[in-house]
């Protein structure tokens, strides 16, 4: 089977990340396995839309082609991704965070996995770039998902998973035809609370609609994600873990608690206790940050549990509404708009 053509979608929302956005686009353009196109989807920010449109007005065709679009749905990451999906031309759609850069072989490793026709999604490994220059002593690697990165406890290599992580992921176009798009009402929404889990809900919905679907993570597909100083602080850690609990309650409502919390049960009963034990051991041995990491794990679990309980109550009372987008999926075509050859 020939390798699929890949469209890359980058959702953006603030001019504060201008240099990061340019770096993300440049990393896609530098891929050893070229992308068909890069789509920049701007989330209800006219000034940023105009600036990016001017920046890439003379964008050449081919792998370097950049298209700038306005989010056609409600404010938020899910609707932005859906806009990019609907406008894309590739057989595979990959997603890259606007404050991340991809290694040169990123798309190559994604493309290789799609040789298997049952593979519907492939994710990669996301490494943090700490604004302070190094990981805070107290910050446990088991909670790197708090800053959008691959966390300790995920399996290594090329492995089958329940869900991929949205900032470094790809989906076969067919997946969206079968399952619909990302659900709005779950995940990030402008400057509101840092929610998540939209990709988890989509992946579970996909495998329910297509039981034979295979979802993979290939940790050779690496991106590097910038972590701003504000996200290195314990206050953000606590807020983000609490928001994750709220999000998981919405996911459980959508797909049921069995699937919605399947991976989380192993994480909380095996990975996190081991992390606490390591932290306490390091504290006893006089190693920096050991007690802080153990305490942060306990605090993170408590905050997430509190968010889940409150979110579940809200769901039972009819709150926390969300909607699954139906996306018009045209036949894949070339980036210049011509139909693909048979």
Description of the molecule:
With about 350 residues, this protein is α/β, with parallel strands linked by helices. It has a domain at about 5-230: Spore Coat Polysaccharide Biosynthesis Protein SpsA, Chain A. Helix content is about 40%, strand content about 20%. It contains 10 helices and 11 strands. It has helices at about 20-30, 45-55, 75-85, 105-115, 175-180, 200-210, 235-255, 255-260, 260-285, 290-315; strands at about 5-10, 35-40, 65-70, 90-95, 100, 120-130, 160, 170, 185, 215-225, 325. The strands form 2 sheets. Strands 1, 2, 3, 4, 5, 6, 7, 8 and 10 form a 9-stranded mixed β-sheet that branches. Strands 9-11 form a two-stranded antiparallel ribbon. Helix 1 links the parallel strand 1 (about 5-10) and strand 2 (about 35-40). Helix 6 (about 200-210) packs parallel to helix 7. Mean pLDDT is about 90; it is low at about 335-340.
């Amino acid at each position: 089977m020939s390798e699929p053509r890949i469209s890359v979608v980058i959702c953006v929302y603030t001019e504060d990340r201008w240099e990061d956005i340019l770096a993300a686009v440049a990393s896609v353009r530098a891929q050893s396995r070229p992308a068909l196109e890069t789509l920049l989807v701007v989330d209800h920010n006219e000034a940023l839309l105009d600036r990016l449109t001017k920046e890439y007005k003379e964008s050449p065709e081919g792998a370097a082609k950049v298209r700038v679009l306005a989010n056609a749905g409600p404010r938020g990451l899910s609707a932005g991704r859906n806009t990019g999906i609907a406008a894309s031309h590739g057989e595979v759609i990959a997603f890259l965070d606007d404050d991340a850069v991809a290694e040169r072989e990123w798309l190559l490793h994604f493309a290789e996995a799609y040789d298997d026709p049952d593979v519907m999604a492939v994710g990669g490994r996301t490494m943090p770039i700490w604004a302070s220059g190094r990981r805070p002593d107290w910050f446990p690697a088991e909670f790197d998902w708090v800053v959008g990165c691959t966390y300790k406890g995920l399996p290594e290599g090329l492995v089958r998973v329940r869900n991929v992580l949205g900032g470094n992921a790809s989906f076969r176009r067919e997946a969206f035809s079968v399952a619909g798009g990302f659900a709005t009402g779950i995940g990030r929404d402008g400057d509101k609370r840092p929610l998540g889990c939209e990709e988890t809900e989509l992946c579970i919905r996909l495998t329910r609609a297509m039981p034979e679907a295979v979802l993979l993570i290939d940790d050779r597909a690496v991106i590097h994600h910038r972590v701003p100083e504000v996200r290195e602080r314990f206050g953000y850690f606590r807020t983000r873990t609490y928001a994750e609990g709220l999000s998981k309650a919405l996911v459980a409502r959508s797909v049921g608690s069995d699937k919605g919390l399947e991976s989380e049960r192993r994480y909380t009963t095996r990975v996190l206790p081991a992390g606490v034990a390591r932290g306490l051991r390091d504290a006893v041995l006089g190693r920096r940050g050991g007690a802080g990491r153990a305490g942060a794990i306990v605090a993170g679990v408590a905050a997430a549990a509190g968010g889940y309980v409150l979110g579940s109550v809200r769901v039972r009372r009819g709150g926390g509404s969300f909607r699954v987008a139906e996306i018009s999926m045209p036949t894949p075509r070339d980036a210049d708009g011509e139909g693909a050859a048979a």
